[in-house]
């Protein structure tokens, strides 16, 4: 049972009780009807790896998986995720800390700088490679349409995702 | 064979693991027990007289602790400007008061008027709706030239006009420049706009103020590139808190690009309110708030004239620029269009006469300040566009025209006060011609034309000035701060090392690259070295990270401190080895006596320093920890040559960036992987400025581009893979690492080549000639220009 922060307690008439599975763990809590899934994750569950970079569902920093689908956690209410299986960046690496193939590729190919967009990028990449294990460069770029990075110019993110799919790009490897 | 550690190795970034696993500690991830939340009621009008604020209803709302207004801040200082500019008549710039919360007057959309502090953010937002403002709307001043020519509406009543300053550089050269232009064989004139941008680091700004009544200690957690600068500005000038009672922490920061250099009202508010309410107070900017409260960048309107003699030698450059300051002077706003811009107007060229005039103007818009490159992109864009235009007018090859006028001998004193120490502009241009495959352009153009498209190739050169210093010089130029940096090298007893640095890493990878330097110097593994940054209670007084200065300035301080450590360690080693310290050599983590097989390991010496049983206590102190402050003798001057190739659809005006190549000279390189990544990101921001980004106000001062729905930033499909090379290296002559700085080059060097490429593409078609299109080159602008 979760201990919720004071910030999650609202007037009774707005209360909604939600239960969901997050990274394999059963969680529940009381939220306001207007509480977004990303707010529940960050403030209610203290899973602060999912970031908020905008307020118009444009930037993708809050990308998570809900029932296996790639979702911007700012674009659904916590109450809408009631009963769902939610996966966040905190659940991607193995329990012993070993990075996933995508995470490792991001480090190997310098696919991140400030790191703020990175959790969303990793979750978006995982979703892509699940559906399309050998994407073309264009398909990678197309899939990242909803994720903005201001640091890398995307070059090394695209390289990392291609590498994670087993498609090293030798022409670029020297960089 | 590439190195696998130390200077020159592409060491993988150690900070990545926490960012990749969601374990970063960004300011918004900090929640302090008992914290309250603040929501700022911001102006939705650009200019108004504020007669009164009624907060009674809001204060009665559930969960509200207090509603603050401008009146609460009358007793504290205004937000200060860090650079005093003296105008061309010898007068100081006009410097208006910049209140924490608006008081009596509202001067731009987004200006904070009231601050509602409540138990929850939702309660604070709800309560802000109940605040009643009594105000009279005033006409807004938005257009810079109108603001100067008509003083009937003033942004600040207490000033004589909307002109902050009229700066001439170098004023004494003005007549000579005029004469040279009059007598020139050819003069190319270009009027252009350097579009207003919003820096948009992906992490919005956050401030969490804390106060401990028992020891009168304030702590501010904030998204800053330079925590010590914030502590000084906010403590000394705004709130009157002495340094020993104020700690500023900037933990993981999600990108800065300049806009997190400055001291902002929200930081002062949260620090102030935490004491007033005796509770932690947290503010997290929404992206919409960021658009109307983060300092914007660029926004220059310029006329530039380039004069050439009959042999196409540059003889003079004259510019007149209107630079938007916005409604208030942000921290370094006044220095950007002047010392960071005028000093670069010689570019890579031996133009004997240069005169720069800048009129800085107050308008009813968000303050404008440094954004990646800060003044140098504006200088580069003007110069490299007008050179391309001159080449086109004269019918000469734009590369040949540049090469003909390159500075080739160093050091070179420009007519705009700076002296370039090193560079090799032909070498970077040679490298560019190779990596960009100029030879294959003709075939690629023919292929595009077969597909009904136009292809253009644009190039440009750039030079920038980084690591701004020395402090005594910038002080003469009006800087109100020193521009040194500092580092403490703390060797632990068993030989591991913690380095406390004034520089701040918010994407640059200092935690990885700085240890590479120490590892190289001492010969111990990189993982034995940790970098500590971002907390004024832990680090020496350094000035932070901006202007591509971290390695050139703070890295130099670190080297100096490490040298002191090594010198002391050699004395200890000499004692242990019963030799003279002059004979001690340090290599691969061992001290040895020259010419003998006697040696002692680094760890044995460090242990002796902390367990000084067998130790020369009468001669040297125990311990092994040294601090150095480093004040550079000159700027550093990275330079390079960039090429962009575009494919243009003449039916729609759509431009695709097909190829982008960059040949840079950054001097020596510590971590090539990180340097390449910095250039990639800079290029993307430059392509963003050239193709997509534009911050737009309407005539009433409404901000039309206030979200990612309206302000277009590059996404993955908007950019190509870049070809980046930094093998041309002329090391800086005056810092110990020979490094120049690489953080801003991409953003400085890329916009002109993009625009030059589009103009080239249009010229290759059969339609009308187009001399210039202002950025961003949206399809509608390109198409309209072609009709």
Automatic annotation (TrEMBL), chain A:
Signal peptide: none annotated. PROSITE patterns: 2FE2S_FER_2. Gene3D superfamilies: 3.10.20.30, [2Fe-2S]-binding domain. One of its GO terms (molecular function) is oxidoreductase activity. Coiled coil: none annotated. Pfam families: Fer2, Fer2_2. Residues 16-92 form the 2Fe-2S ferredoxin-type domain. Keywords: 2Fe-2S, Iron, Iron-sulfur, Metal-binding, Oxidoreductase. InterPro entries: 2Fe-2S-bd, 2Fe-2S-bd_dom_sf, 2Fe-2S_ferredoxin-like_sf, 2Fe-2S_ferredoxin-type, Beta-grasp_dom_sf, Diverse_Oxidoreductases. This is Carbon-monoxide dehydrogenase small subunit. It comes from Loktanella fryxellensis.
TrEMBL record, chain B:
It comes from the Bacteria. Gene3D superfamilies: Aldehyde oxidase/xanthine dehydrogenase, a/b hammerhead, Aldehyde oxidase/xanthine dehydrogenase, molybdopterin binding domain. Pfam families: Ald_Xan_dh_C, MoCoBD_1, MoCoBD_2. GO terms for molecular function: iron ion binding; oxidoreductase activity. InterPro entries: Ald_Oxase/Xan_DH_a/b, Ald_Oxase/Xan_DH_a/b_sf, Ald_Oxase/xanthine_DH-like, AldOxase/xan_DH_MoCoBD1, AldOxase/xan_DH_MoCoBD2, AldOxase/xan_DH_Mopterin-bd_sf. Keywords: Molybdenum, Oxidoreductase. Residues 21-139 form the Aldehyde oxidase/xanthine dehydrogenase a/b hammerhead domain. This is Xanthine dehydrogenase, molybdenum binding subunit apoprotein. It comes from Loktanella fryxellensis.
């Amino acid at each position: 049972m979760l201990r919720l922060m004071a910030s999650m307690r609202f007037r009774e008439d707005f209360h909604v009780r939600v239960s969901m599975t997050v990274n394999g763990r059963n969680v529940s809590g009381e939220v306001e009807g207007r509480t977004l899934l990303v707010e529940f994750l960050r403030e209610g569950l203290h899973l602060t790896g999912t970031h908020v970079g905008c307020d118009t569902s444009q930037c993708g920093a809050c990308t998570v998986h809900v029932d296996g689908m790639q979702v911007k956690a700012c674009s659904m209410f916590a109450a809408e995720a009631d009963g769902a299986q939610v996966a966040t960046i905190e659940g991607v690496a193995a329990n012993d800390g070993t990075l996933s193939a995508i995470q490792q590729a991001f480090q190997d190919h310098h696919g991140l700088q400030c790191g703020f967009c990175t959790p969303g990028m990793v979750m978006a990449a995982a979703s892509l490679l699940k559906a399309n294990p050998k994407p073309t460069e264009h398909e990678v770029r197309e899939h990242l349409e909803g994720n903005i990075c201001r640091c890398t110019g995307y070059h090394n993110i695209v390289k990392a995702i291609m590498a994670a799919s087993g498609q090293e790009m030798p022409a670029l490897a020297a960089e | 064979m590439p190195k696998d550690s130390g200077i020159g190795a592409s060491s993988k970034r150690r900070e990545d693991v926490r960012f990749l696993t969601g374990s970063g500690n960004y300011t918004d991830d900090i929640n302090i027990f008992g914290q309250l939340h603040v929501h700022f009621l911001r102006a939705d009008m650009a200019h108004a007289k504020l007669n009164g604020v009624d907060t009674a209803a809001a204060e009665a709302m559930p969960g509200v602790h207090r509603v603050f207004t401008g009146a609460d801040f009358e007793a504290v200082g205004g937000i200060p400007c860090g650079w005093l500019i003296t105008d061309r008549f010898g007068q100081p710039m006009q410097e208006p008061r910049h209140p924490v919360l608006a008081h009596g007057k509202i001067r731009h959309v987004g200006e904070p008027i009231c601050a509602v502090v409540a138990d929850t953010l939702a309660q604070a937002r709800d309560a802000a709706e109940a605040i009643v403002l009594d105000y009279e709307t005033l006409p807004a001043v938005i257009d810079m030239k109108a603001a100067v020519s008509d003083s009937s509406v003033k942004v600040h009543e207490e000033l004589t006009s909307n002109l902050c300053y009229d700066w001439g550089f170098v004023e004494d050269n003005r007549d000579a420049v005029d004469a040279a232009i009059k007598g020139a064989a050819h003069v190319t004139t270009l009027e252009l706009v350097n579009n207003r941008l919003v820096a948009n680091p992906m992490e919005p700004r956050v401030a969490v103020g804390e106060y401990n009544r028992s020891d009168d200690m304030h702590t501010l957690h904030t998204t800053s590139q330079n925590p010590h600068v914030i502590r000084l500005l906010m403590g000394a000038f705004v709130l009157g808190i002495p340094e020993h009672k104020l700690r500023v922490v900037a933990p993981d920061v999600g990108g800065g690009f300049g806009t997190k250099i400055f001291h902002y009202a929200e930081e002062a508010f949260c620090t102030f309110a935490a004491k007033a309410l005796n509770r932690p107070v947290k503010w997290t900017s929404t992206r919409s708030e960021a658009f109307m409260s983060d300092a914007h960048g660029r926004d220059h309107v310029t006329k530039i004239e380039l004069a050439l003699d009959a042999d196409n030698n540059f003889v003079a450059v004259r510019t007149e620029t209107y630079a938007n300051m916005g409604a208030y002077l942000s921290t370094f706003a006044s220095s950007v269009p002047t010392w960071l811009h005028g000093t670069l107007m010689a570019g890579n060229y031996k133009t004997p006469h240069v005169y720069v005039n800048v009129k800085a103007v107050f308008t009813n818009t968000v303050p404008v300040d440094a954004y990646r490159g800060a003044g140098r992109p504006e200088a580069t864009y003007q110069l490299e566009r007008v050179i391309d235009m001159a080449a086109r007018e004269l019918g000469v090859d734009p590369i040949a025209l540049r090469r003909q006028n390159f500075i080739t001998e160093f050091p070179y004193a420009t007519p705009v006060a700076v002296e370039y120490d090193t560079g090799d502009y032909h070498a970077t241009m040679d490298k560019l011609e190779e990596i960009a495959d100029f030879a294959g352009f003709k075939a690629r153009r023919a292929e595009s034309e077969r597909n009904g498209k136009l292809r253009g190739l644009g190039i440009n050169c750039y030079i920038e000035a980084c690591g701004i210093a020395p402090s005594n010089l910038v002080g003469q130029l009006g800087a109100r701060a020193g521009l040194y940096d500092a580092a403490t090298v703390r060797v632990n007893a068993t030989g591991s090392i913690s380095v406390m640095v004034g520089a701040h890493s918010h994407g640059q990878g200092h935690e990885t690259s700085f240890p590479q330097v120490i590892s190289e110097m001492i010969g111990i593994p990189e993982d034995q070295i940790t970098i500590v940054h971002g907390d004024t209670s832990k680090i020496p007084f350094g000035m932070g990270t901006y202007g591509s200065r971290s390695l050139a300035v703070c890295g130099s301080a670190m080297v100096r401190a490490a040298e002191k450590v090594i010198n002391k360690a050699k004395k200890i080693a000499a004692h242990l080895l019963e030799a003279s310290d002059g004979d001690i050599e340090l290599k691969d983590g061992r001290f040895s006596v020259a010419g003998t097989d006697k040696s002692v390991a680094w760890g044995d010496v460090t242990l002796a320093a902390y367990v000084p049983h067998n130790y020369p206590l009468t001669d040297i102190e125990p311990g092994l920890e040294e601090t150095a402050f480093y004040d550079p003798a000159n700027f550093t001057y990275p330079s390079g040559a960039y090429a962009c190739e575009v494919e243009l659809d003449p039916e729609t005006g759509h431009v695709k960036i097909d190829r982008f190549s960059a040949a840079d000279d950054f001097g020596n390189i510590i971590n090539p992987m990180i340097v390449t990544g910095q250039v990639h990101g800079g290029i993307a921001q430059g392509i963003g400025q050239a193709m997509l980004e534009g911050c737009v106000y309407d005539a009433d001062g409404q901000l039309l581009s206030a979200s990612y729905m309206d302000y277009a930033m590059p996404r993955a499909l908007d950019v190509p893979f870049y070809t980046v090379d930094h093998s041309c290296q002329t090391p800086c002559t005056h810092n110990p690492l020979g490094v120049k700085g690489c953080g801003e080059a991409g953003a400085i060097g890329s916009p002109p080549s993009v625009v030059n490429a589009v103009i080239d593409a249009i010229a290759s078609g059969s339609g009308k000639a187009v001399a210039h299109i202002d950025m961003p080159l949206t399809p509608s602008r390109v198409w309209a220009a072609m009709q």
